[in-house]
Amino acid sequence: MVNAGDMNGSGNLMDFLDEPFPDVGTYEDFHTIDWLREKSRDTDRHRKITSKSKESIWEFIKSLLDAWSGWVVMLLIGLLAGTLAGVIDLAVDWMTDLKEGVCLSAFWYSHEQCCWTSNETTFDDRDKCPQWQKWSELLVSQSEGASAYILNYFLYIMWALCFAFLAVSLVRVFAPYACGSGIPEIKTILSGFIIRGYLGKWTLLIKTVTLVLVVSSGLSLGKEGPLVHVACCCGNFFSSLFSKYSKNEGKRREVLSAAAAAGVSVAFGAPIGGVLFSLEEVSYYFPLKTLWRSFFAALVAAFTLRSINPFGNSRLVLFYVEYHTPWYMAELFPFILLGVFGGLWGTLFIRCNIAWCRRRKTTRLGKYPVLEVIVITAITAIIAYPNPYTRRSTSELISELFNDCGALESSQLCDYINDPNMTRPVDDIPDRPAGPGVYSAMWQLALALVFKIVITIFTFGMKIPSGLFIPSMAVGAMAGRMVGIGVEQLAYHHHDWIIFRNWCRPGADCVTPGLYAMVGAAACLGGVTRMTVSLVVIMFELTGGLEYIVPLMAAAVTSKWVADAFGKEGIYEAHIHLNGYPFLDVKDEFTHRTLATDVMRPRRGEAPLSVLTQDSMTVEDVETLIKETDYNGFPVVVSKDSERLIGFAQRRELILAIKNARQRQDGVVSNSIVYFTEDPPELPPNSPHPLKLQRILNLSPFTVTDHTPMETVVDIFRKLGLRQCLVTRSGRLLGIITKKDVLRHMAQMANQDPESIMFN
Fold first, then answer.
1. Do residues 464 and 171 make contact, with C-beta atoms less than 8 angstroms apart?
2. Intervals of the chain under pLDDT 50
């Protein structure tokens, strides 16, 4: 036997793992983090800092810096997210107008900025000024006529194709993860999944640049969803500068939750809505501390954006409106109808878009992403240019649809027949009969609505940054404005009907079509994303329409009910399932009466479970087991005969520990005994040094009995964020259930393909 003196002499060598070594605690790509372990590590770190802070002034100052580091990270995220959003807004404004013309006095001015500085602009032709010239005026000195129209049409298409081609090329070459909305992946990352590079510096840079290009190209997509991805990239970058967050994946996800709130804050100018969006829609783990920090990050981001003032109206948003008429109870019926339309549109969009994306994944179409983007851009530009409501940017379209018709409005939508004897104040114009401009606008809006519905299905999901918020709102706003004008004309011509008699007298300003557009936009966005509380708050922050919360709530709830009747999944959950990400949705209910023994592995007929023993395996045995299997970890038992459970060892940490031991500890060879106990085993004389790996052993792995209902197991996986759970009976190990097993079982119970869960 090895005598006590020898053992004591080599104690320092054997216990070298009592000091942490590089990369322990990190995870491999496309793997799930262990939330309980990350929480435990952070508690240990905090306890250590607290005890050290009493030793000296310097340690006390370090503990204060550690406590404040979270707030510093939030401040930096808010500043960078707000700045990037402001730059994106200004660049999009300029490049969108560049498709139609250029400012001669300063080419970097957009159309609106160019004419602001002009002294020769008249009120009737406020959009025309000598400094701004269309391409036909600049190239052939003609502003009217067929040749000028064709030249402008051709250059509009060429600019759109140029922007789209540049965007898809940059994404394909430099940052493939910069495509899409980003919200499905961020939801998955926040649930504990690792996708390395998805929130990297290259992704941040390329997504910011290409977002400007694709929105300027006129494609039916928005920048709001991708801005959440951009903000999370900022959060990931700043959290990597502080060891508190860079070395703990659980803490990093708290920062990313707050960054998502900052992203929505600058996307819509809605800081409170951003916090609620992060809480309701994207976050998996959202403690109270994260709520406060999200609020602070959203506040700083909104303040930074307001300081840049990209819209030139001293407001955070483009869609700010002021309505002068209250809404009436009788109007709840058309509002609810808009909610029904929103729910139906949401269902139609999700089903068609997922079918198209699945076709893209499974056919040759997916091999030509550049060609697909070019074709969709060409079709969009060719069809969009002749219609003034699809030619302009979608944000400007929504802004016009939300607007109330005042005396100074020059839009076609406000071409009503005025009473020459009217002597009312400017802001209290009564309902009037529609003029030819309104009827013409209705036809154009109807065509634009059909076009937007169809083209958005094919645009969302291409290999370019693409948001869905603005196109969904545009569909709802167009439908809502048309319904609003219809109700307004009905009330004007039939004010003696019983439904109008009590609240709509002749000569009164009864119906506000812009309000219907706002409600329709909320309904369609709710139908697609299934948001409710955060949606209503975002909408009233977006428009300033605080007194219209009840119509917005009615439409949002109705659209969710109608859409849920056809399927519980929103667009982001549908894309998560399409991509096979291991995401356990809290909203999904599991009601089947199966037990842990039905799901655990190994099943009957399969090879026995791969395990480690506490003190009877050599380094070579452990390395062979690691090479022959691809499991993420191994249960540790007393012996293969008794199978009494001791703990659980992670695969990655075993590999690193053995590698480090061979480099740093003399005497560790292939036939060295590996032991996971406090005291070394009794060994024959002249045996090689044993290797102690107790430090990497999790002595309290989560266990359930074989008769635990799967409903409880699913709940445990959701609420504790487990990677795996061991199944025992009377302390004896029977099997293991991983997150992937749970997802497969849930898919099987829902009559879906269990192999669609692609990742570990």
1. yes
2. 1-19, 123, 423-427, 760
Neighbour-count burial for 180-208, b at 16+ CB within 10 Å, e otherwise: bbbbbbbbbbbbbbbbeebbbeebbbbbb
In tens, the pLDDT along 191-233 reads 989 999 999 999 999 999 999 999 999 999 999 999 999 999 9
For residue 219, give the amino acid letter.
L
* Same-domain status, 600 and 506: no
Output the six-digit token pair for 328. 């009436």
Q: What is the CATH number of the domain that holds 281?
A: 1.10.3080.10
Spatial distance between the Cα atoms of 9 and 36, rounded to a whole number of angstroms: 36
The answer to whether residues 607 and 505 belong to one domain is no
Written as six digits, the tokens of 591 are 């009601």
Please give the Cα distance from 485 to 479 (Å, whole number). 10
Tell me the one-letter amino acid at 222.
Answer: G
- For residue 583, is it within any domain? no
Left if phi > 0, otherwise alpha if psi is -120 to 50, otherwise beta: which for 648?
beta
pLDDT in tens, 569-614: 899 999 998 988 888 887 777 888 899 999 998 888 888 889 999 8
Give, for 726, the enclosing helix (H) or strand (E): strand 724-729
Q: Residue 68 CB: number of other CB atoms within 10 A?
A: 11
Give me the amino acid identity at 599.
V
> What is the residue whose two structure tokens read 């005497």?
667
Radius of gyration, alpha carbons of the chain:
31
Q: How far apart are alpha carbons 400 and 445 in whole angstroms?
A: 12
Q: Where are the alpha helices (DSSP H) in 508-548?
A: 513-529, 533-543
Whether pTM > 0.70 for this model: the answer is yes
* Residue entry with tokens 């006390």: 60
- The whole-number pLDDT of residue 757 equals 62
Residue that is written with structure tokens 């109705």 in the block: 558
Buried b (16+ CB within 10 A) or exposed e, 230-246: bbbbbbbbbbbebebbe
Domain membership of residue 556 (yes or no) is yes
Two structure tokens written together for 496 = 């003696």
Instruction: Specify the 3-state DSSP secondary structure of 636.
Output: strand
Which residues contact residue 303 at a Cβ distance below 8 angstroms, ignoring those fewer than 6 apart?
Answer: 78, 82
CATH number of the domain that 698 lies in? 3.10.580.20
186 in Cβ contact with 282 (< 8 Å): yes
Give the structural domain span for 742: 596-750
What's the pLDDT at 23? 55
Report the candidate in 549, 563, 559 with the shortest Cα–Cα distance to residue 518. 549
3-state secondary structure 8-19: HHCHHHHCHHHC
Region at 673 (left for phi over 0; alpha for psi -120 to 50; beta for the rest): beta
- How many Å separate Cα 190 from the centre of its chain? 10
Amino acid in position 383 = I
Are 201 and 244 within one domain? Answer: yes
Q: What tokens were used for 745?
A: 């079982």
Q: Which among 510, 541, 575 is the end of a domain?
A: 575
Length of the chain: 760
At 756 the pLDDT is 65
Same domain, 603 and 710: yes
- pLDDT at residue 428 in the model: 52
Q: How far apart are CA 374 and CA 738, in angstroms?
A: 43
Give the number of domains in the chain.
2
Q: How far apart are CA 583 and CA 740, in angstroms?
A: 9
CA torsion sign for 355, 360, 361, 364 is positive
Rounded Cα distance, 198 and 194, in Å? 9
**Domain end marker among 540, 575, 610:** 575
Torsion from C-alpha of 164, 168, 173, 179, nearest 10 degrees? 140
